[in-house]
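User: I'm curious what two different proteins look like when written out as structure tokens. Can you demonstrate?

Assistant: Sure. I'll show them one after the other, since each token string lines up with its own sequence. Here's the first protein:
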Amino acid sequence: MRHPDTISDDKLSEAKPPLRKPDEKIDTSRRGLLRGFGLASVGVAALAAGCAPAATEAAAAPAAATPPVDKSVAIMGANESPFGPSPKAIEAMVAKAALTARYADAEGEDLKAQVAAIEGVSPEQVFLANGSSPILAAFGEMIAQTGKGQLVTSIATYEGVPRAAGQYGAEVIMTPLTAEFGIDLDAMAAKVSKKTTATYVCNPNNPTGNMVDPVKLKAFAIEASKTAPCFIDEAYLDLCDDYAGNVMTGLVRDGHNVVICRTFSKIYGMAGQRLGYGIASPEMAKQMGMATRMGGVNHLGIVAAMASLADKSFVPAMQPKFKAGRERLHAVVKGLGRPIASNPQASFIFFDAGMPAKEFAEKMMAEGVRVVGRSWTQYDNWSRICVGEDWEMDRCEAALKKVLA
């Protein structure tokens, strides 16, 4: 499943379920992440039984030269990290590049053990995938129950789970956002019934960037999970101001029917390397792992993930960069008098451009800035822009002042 922000609006309209009013049922066929503080480096296991250790280690290759930066277009639409991965992750990938001819089964078990140790769960409760998209899609298919399932979620949220569930025949119920552009957990709770086979909450939410109150989210998840699995997507949680106060992994530790999804694509700067994971009950993790693992998980992604988690200084260094970027974007758009979702906590802002999203994207592209050209239910004139490098931010600010004037 491709990331929806890399697909044209026309292609998305072919793939996603038809849009309905927020309270109307859709009757049609997809993270914070480990902070790594205090984590010791975990060694990589032998690639295959019986192989001599010397045969499993590739000679360290010289570090690759930094490629020249293409400044023809400022890329500010796909929520990637403009700051790149940890230098230790790059070093680890270069050192292990020659081993990609082998499946990474052993390394995958090492990474699961790392995650489990940090989260206080067993390795059997952790499952891996090539990015978080396969996890979201597999969950959507699973809870669809061949056309008998029902998903309760919100409008203007990440489409992975809702789209997959709808494509496999589930009923998708979407509730309105609050007046502050947040996910309305009370409205979602009111829609949960005996027919419900899952609930989905993205926190921080994409595209709005807002977060739900952690006390309310915990209470909602505990109650909703008595009926069906509650899927909490924490792709952007490492970017928020208070990770410790908002992380929901404890719900899994306490035995609730909750699935947590994370990715290395955001703060860890590995969007192109594809590595994601989930945390759930041993039974759910096994079922999801069988669906997402398929022939294996990206070898260098696993290697880079282990090195990233061992780099204690990386996440603390990235957090203020993202915070400064989103606050700069927020100030620019608000200063232009545009309605905007307040207090963004991810890597982007969400605002009313005063014109159809596709038209806004075309005008920004004419200024050398690529933004999202698609829209969300009931927010046809709203757009989302993510943090970029300094030169991208400068160009984007100039384009916004011209296009939104």
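Here's a second, unrelated protein for contrast:
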Amino acid sequence: MGRNVNSKYWDEELETLPREELEKRQLADLQEIVQFAYDHAPYYKRSFDEAGVKPSDIKQLSDLQKFPFINKKTQRDTQGVGSFLGELAAVPEEDVVFISTSSGSTGVPTMSPFTKKDFDEFQDTESRWFWQIGMRPNDRYVHALNFSLYVGGPDVIGAQNLGALCIWGGTLPSERLLFILKTYQPTVIWTSPSYAWQLGEKALKSGYDPKKDFSIKKIIVAGELGGSIDATRKAIEDIWGAEVFDFYGLSDIFGACAAQCEYHDGLHIAENHILVETVDIHTGEILPPGETGELVFTTLRKHARPLIRFRTGDIGRIDRTPCKCGRTHGRIHILGRKDDMFIVSAVNVFPSDIEAVIREQHGITGEYLIRIFEKDFTSKYAVEIEKNSDNPKDDAAVADEVSAALKARIGVKPASVIVHPDGGLNTRSEHKSKRIIDERKLDYSI
């Protein structure tokens, strides 16, 4: 393939561009895509006209702030309107070669179309992330992600384009996946963080030692926050004896838009494809780099359905300071979903904070369930956990320890901690695990 396998970069020029040059390229792509969206997508023509803005208003990157936001509701409201692809699409259906859909976990599933150029650039970015974590042509890779309409499914092509031997696993039963790991001895696997941990636990209970019986050296996780939570990442690494790397993707854009490097200090985002803004979740006011707010993405090169100022619903920050790895593209740090954040006694609580505490505690399995409920017209939360079968402490003592740890980390303790025996919680899943039950009936929109 003509690429130096000893180089740490997939595309050194692109990945190490000086910020000034990177932003110059972003501006050129932004001006082109905004004009293209205005000329070809009915929604953007109408929206820009109503807002009194036009593509030619963009003289510098900050001028994007003049343009209106879109969000998931925009996608749902325009999907199928006027055409199969809807009013946000900027190309005819005959130019589209692939579509994925969102899970629909927060509403009606939304469709994400790709032209061939969109798709090829999408997979080149995936190759870049795989290379970034150290995958090389001599690796064997198991893609243990859903292939059914899921935008992460095709990412296996990025590994193939890199030259790795690829096993299209999909969402196999655990027993079958363990058989593959034992028989084919792959070196890299991609799945969700909760399933990576659960698969390791199941391997141990099945008589395997993941560190000795398998050859996994790198584990990619995505779809949940665990990969960026130090305690969760360490728990997975301790079982497998492998290094865990977090990836971040959006069905609205493409499979993995950002990925950790070897320093695990945030996830490098493909700034040649995505312009990142951070805004106040209430006012939409632009926040300086480094401050925490809702991440807003603008696609710079995706033509099938451009996204101009798309409010992702993800709460985080972007860090554009130099990374030790030498890459100049900014790193995003995700705290959680705006939809998942809840407020207790004036404290913002993210499920990721609770997970970090649970995964650090000794004598419990690491499985958990969060229940949010109302009492005296205010929000409360309770946590359910599992105690290890060999833990000699009584349930009350375990509950007190976890409650105190949550109070110390988060600032507000749970209304209760309920302790189950090992396996007593129905949270284990071979996909994303459901860990939050919101029983509130009042409107607690943030």
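A detail about the second structure: The chain has two domains: 1-335, 342-438.
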